[in-house]
Structures are given as structure tokens and as C-alpha cells.
Amino acid sequence: MYTAIGYAAQTPTSPLLPMSFERRSPRADDVAIEILYCGVCHSDIHQARNEWGIAVYPLMPGHEIVGRVTAVGANVSKHKVGDLVGVGCMVDSCRECQACAKDLEQYCLAGPTMTYATPDRVDGSNTMGGYSNSIVVSEHFVLRMPHGLDLASAAPLLCAGITTYSPLKHHGVGPGHKVGILGMGGLGHMGIKFAKALGAEVTLFTRSAAKAEEARRQGADHVIVSSDAEQMRAAAGRFDFLLDTIPVQHDLNPYLDTLTFDGVHILVGLIEPVEPPLHAANLVLKRRVLAGSLIGGIAETQEMLDFSAEHGITCDIEMLDIRSINEAFERVIAGDVKYRFVIDMTTLKA
Ligand code: NDP
Ligand code: ZN
């Protein structure tokens, strides 16, 4: 065991405050990592405030982690001391169920071990995330950071990146497809970049007309202001896919209307229950599909990192001093960040 430091919430209503705690010494298959950067995902806020009802305290968020390997266990072959590596939302899974066998650890039938607020499979301790100076993770769940990616801007690829890349790939998005991205925050701006890089025609649906120019700079071909009923009606029946990153309850019906027959509306926000109710006719009469998607598997996350390096894709970030994390949470909720905060972990030493 060794002493680590980080920022954690002690209750759903308390701010994140510094705390020291014990990280395990590397087991035979573990990699110990000095964390350099960690992105701030909206899920971190949902979890710190127990908005999903599954939080465990103290809760140390952070699952968009980039760092350098400082030690490895005796059986580690994938990574060595000094390597630049990444860790996303998961740190373990059962590794033998049908999902794990298909490299879909995020759908592990026994439940994946998430990077924070989940019992470790071996010692039962509560996992602590990346708002910290270090982390220890089994080598299978540690990604190789490709050369050529700016490390700070690449950190959010570990969640915002894979969560948008995976459903676009799974549904076969490519040239000839019209794709709508709902909401341009951390996930949404990555969705625009990936859908564009995969060859689709991309439209941003946003609440704010002011984001139109920004969206085009990100690669969007068109912008629809979702609060303008006229613009929504004019888009009826146009899209093959919608990738919905809106983090709060919202009416799905006007969006479903913009899909063509066989169109697919993919949810990534955990906005249950859907409110106001879904009109079944919006699905039935056009054989449309309402789908969901959770992050991506480890092999696919590596594929996404390599794809990003090849296509020069990173996130638009604002560097954050960890001492301002509580203000940063408020700014994320207010939509006042372009488009991801990334904690510079040197500020933890200050
Ligand atoms: P952000 O807060 O960065 O972005 C969300 C965007 O949604 C905003 O920028 C805004 O875009 C739009 N939005 C926000 N509030 C509203 C509202 N009241 N009504 C309509 N639109 C709104 O969040 P993230 O991108 O970090 O996360 C998005 C969601 O995805 C979260 O719920 C998060 O928990 C979830 N998530 C899911 C994962 C998965 O594996 N399924 C993994 C990671 C995150 P605009 O201003 O353009 O309208
Ligand atoms: Zn996330």
C-alpha cells in the first residue's frame, strides 16, 4: 500500500475536497500510473451528487485519465515503466462471460468494475478515480497512448471519445449517411468529429443558435436549433442516425420525427424515465429504432485512440487547476466550457 492524494466528495451535497488515502501496491498483473491529466465528465457530477442513486462515498471521480507508468507487476507484458498510458471508465470485469469474450467488457454479465465507486473484484475496496496523483489498474484495462496526440487534449477521448465512437461504429455510420448529434458539450463535440471522420454528413441539434459557427468549425455541415419548432419540422424524415448526448430528461418525439424509416436514435445519457412519454407510433410507423450505448470495450477504445491519432482528432479543452473543481462542476452544468475541462495534475501538488 502507498499513500495517494486526490479530491473527493464525502456526501452527495458536500463539495469535492482534498483527501489522502491508500492505493494498493501493484498485484502481479497491475500497472501503477502517475496521473498527468484527467478530464471532467458530466457523469462525474451525476455520480458525486448521487443523481443515479448508486454512489459510494468517499467518491473520487475521474475516468478520463492519462499518465505515465511508474511500476508494473511481475506478470505485466503490455506496458513498461515510463510508457504513456490511458485509463477510461472501467478497471476490471469478470473476463469470462459472453460479453467479455467478445471484447465488450462494458456489458460484462457480472458487471464491470468501474474506475470509481465500485468494489474491487479482489479486495472489495471502493475504487477511487482519476482526480488523484496516481492509480493502480490491471494491465488489460490500461490503454497505450499513441504518438502524436497531445496528452491533455487526448484525455477526454477515454470517455467522451469512446462513448461517441463506439455507437457510430456499431451502427455502421459512414459515407452517404446523415447523422444528427444532439447537444454540443463534451460528448457532442466529439460525436461531430468522429461522424465527420467516418464520412457522414453531420448536423448538430443545439439549444443555442450561438453555437452554430463553433459547430461548423468542429466539422458540422448543418445546424438545427432544437427550440425552433419550425426548424425541427423542416427536418422531418431526414436523418439515418441521431446520437443523443443530452444529459437531462427531454422530449424524444420531435427528434424521432426527424429520422427516416429504419432510422436509429441512440441514447447515451441515462435520462430515465423518458419524460414526456414516447409515442410508439413514432417508432412503429417507420420501423425506427430507439437504441442505447455504454462507453466501449477495451480493444475498441485502443482502436479509437489509434483512429484519433491517424485523423488528428482530439478534444477541445480548457485546462483546470484542481483547486477550482467545484466551480468547474457548476460551469459544466451551465454549459460554460468549450468543451471539456481537463485537470492539470501538477496543480494537485500546489
Ligand atoms: P455536457 O454537459 O458536456 O454536454 C451536454 C450537452 O447537452 C450540453 O452542452 C448542451 O448542448 C446539451 N444540454 C444540456 N442541458 C440541456 C437541456 N436542459 N436541454 C437540452 N439540451 C441540453 O455533458 P457530457 O457531454 O459530458 O455528457 C453527456 C451525457 O452523457 C451525460 O448525461 C453523461 O452522464 C452521459 N455519458 C454517458 C456515457 C455512456 O457510456 N453512455 C459515458 C459518458 C457520459 P447544447 O448547448 O448544444 O444544446
Ligand atoms: Zn465520462
From TrEMBL:
InterPro entries: ADH-like_C, ADH-like_N, ADH_Zn_CS, CAD-like, D-isomer_DH_CS1, ER, GroES-like_sf, NAD(P)-bd_dom_sf. Its EC number is 1.1.-.-. Signal peptide: none annotated. Keywords: Metal-binding, Oxidoreductase, Zinc. The keyword Metal-binding applies. GO terms for molecular function: oxidoreductase activity. Its cofactor is Zn(2+). It is an enzyme of class 1 (oxidoreductase). SMART domains: PKS_ER (SM00829). Residues 10-343 form the Enoyl reductase (ER) domain. Belongs to the zinc-containing alcohol dehydrogenase family. This is NAD(P)-dependent alcohol dehydrogenase. It comes from Pseudomonas shirazensis. The lineage of its organism: Bacteria, Pseudomonadati, Pseudomonadota, Gammaproteobacteria, Pseudomonadales.
